Description:
Strand order of the largest sheet: 1-7-6-5-4-8-10-9
CATH class: Alpha Beta
Order of helices and strands: EHEEEEEEHEHHHEEH
Distance between the termini: 40 Å
Number of domains: 1
Amino acid sequence: MDEGYIKFNCQWLKEKSDDGINISDINLWRNRLHEIGLIGVYENGIGFGNISSRLENNHFLISGSATGSIPKPNKDHYTVVTDYNLEQNNLTCKGPIKASSESLSHAVIYECDPSVNAVIHVHSMKLWSELLHVLPTTNASVAYGTPEMAMEIKRLFEECAVEKHSTIIMGGHEEGILVFGKSMDEAGDKILELFYAHEKLHGALNKPH
């Protein structure tokens, strides 16, 4: 499993966290999703899941690489993506930590839909298996964290009703799901809606008759 490894050229401008950036909303949702296991860490110590919010000047704040194991992150666990280039597979971030390995996927969602202000990437085998090819799904041959994945997301925005569902299933990234919204609450509520609908359905199916 190569989950969590950065596959783009990361130009990291290491500096202290920006005191002008408020992480309360993004951190609240990150911790809530961590509590129910949609963001976390595997037994082998590799973290999964990440969360971001749009800032001014086409920048966005995103959780740092390998932070899934941290129960209660703070400002030192977030960084700002300031630029990216898909053709060159480059991404520039500044802050106390390197940007998440899924940063290119977040970046291209913000590019494709200017109304989006929050993106969340979670892992759930149950949800992923249930929603694969039911909701907009990327090609199974495309790996996460690559320019090809970003281009696949662009393709879905052009060919499918992605905005209607606010969800992308990552066909070549087992367990991987992206949700987004006009606000952090909207994106968070979307993944909870999917998660609890699944739990309710399967809880009812598993009840003894």
